Amino acid sequence: MENENHEARNKQVILKNYVIKRFPKESDMEVKTNKIELKLPESCSNNDILVKNLYISCDPYIRNLINDDNNMPAAHRTLVGSPLTGYAVAKVLDSKHTNYKKGDLVWGITRWEEYSLLSSSNSLFKIHHVDVPLSYYTGILGMPGMTAYAGFYEVGSPKKGDRVFISAASGAVGQLVGQFAKLAGCYVVGTASTNQKVHLLKNELGFDQAFNYKEEKDLDLALKRYFPEGIDIYFENVGGKLLDVVLLNMRLHGRIIACGMISQYNLEQSDGVHNLSVIVSKRIRMQGFVVSDFYHLYPKYLEMILPFIKAGKISYVEDIAQGLEAAPGALIGLFTGRNVGKQVIAVARE
Predict the structure, then answer these.
(1) If you classify domain 7-139+317-346 with CATH, what class do you get?
(2) Where is the secretion signal located (predicted)?
């Protein structure tokens, strides 16, 4: 319920318990309703803006923000009793910032709630292209898209003919990496957790091959089947036992792009990697990266990706859950493979 210059109900997804060395549960979060003024108070600073959240991005990295981890900067942690933090698409309702005015659409870091008062807009990007779905700014035109772009092109240094392997290949990032690799003239294989996702990769997203890792008794044999001459580029989203097997199947001067390791986030004891010594004999470069280091390339990325989207040369699969009530379940579903494509929470219609 919203009425300009008046108070509104503000539904929020609140963290009830820190999640330490275990899988998160829906009961670790609760949906509560508070009230908020739909106008900035006079005491606000000159950088403050008030936004209405339209679409919230549900991403695996959020798991790392709900630890009681004192090594993580306070601005990146979610405190018990506070709303979860993450990327979203939002509309500016009121602003004291010179770069943003009422009615502007933005994407960037906000909170899991209907309305957010943001005290710093350094992490926001103004949306100029509205002839594509707004939800795309939680995915292909937002942080996951930039992650795929920076990881594959800037870190991976692909060459035509490279043999590319992608784990969690149907997810928000993996589905794009595979399509970028095909556009670059590479041979591409992805792995996923269900036959439905395997079908999606091969028949809708243009991967050369894909397989369900849960149906493979021997992952080493599976990789040798799809990569008889070895792997040039591995886009790593999973970690653990899969990484260990991939190391044995890398080619000389191969590149491992470490984007995420979702298999390790909820373990009490992380899996050991036993085959690391091959990075010496095979001269493998293994590099991790954080997408925010590459945001200066966002205009360049838009120049590349928007024509591909409009020409139908890039597909993007979304899994949209309706309402903040669905958000805790959607987050948990990321760790059981329930989502098909990019998980998005639709909070309000524009």
Answers:
(1) alpha beta
(2) none
CATH class held by domain 143-292: alpha beta
Q: Is 349 exposed, middle or buried (0-12, 13-18, 19+ CB in 10 A)?
A: exposed
* Every domain of the chain and the residues it spans: 7-139+317-346, 143-292
Burial track 66-105 (b if 16+ CB lie within 10 A, e otherwise): bbeeeeeeeeebbeeeebbbbbbbbbbbbbebeebeeebb
Q: How far is CA 61 from CA 129, 203, 274, 315, 349, in A?
A: 27, 28, 25, 23, 26
Q: Spell out the per-residue pLDDT of the chain, length 350, in tens.
A: 455 557 899 999 999 999 888 889 999 999 999 999 999 888 777 789 999 999 999 998 898 888 876 556 565 678 899 999 999 999 999 998 888 999 999 999 999 999 999 986 668 999 999 999 999 999 999 999 999 999 999 999 999 999 999 999 999 999 999 999 999 999 999 999 999 999 999 999 999 999 999 999 999 999 999 999 999 999 999 888 999 999 999 999 999 999 988 777 766 777 878 999 999 999 999 999 999 999 999 999 999 999 999 999 999 999 999 999 999 999 999 988 888 899 999 999 76
Domains 7-139+317-346 and 143-292 share a fold: no
User: Could you give the CA distance from residue 3 to residue 23 in angstroms, rounded to a whole number?
Assistant: 40
Distance CA 316, CA 149 (A): 14
Cβ 237 vs Cβ 260: under 8 Å = yes
Closest Cα to residue 341, out of 201, 149, 153, 142?
201
Tokens of 287: 């590099």
Global pTM reads 0.91
d(CA 330, CA 52): 21
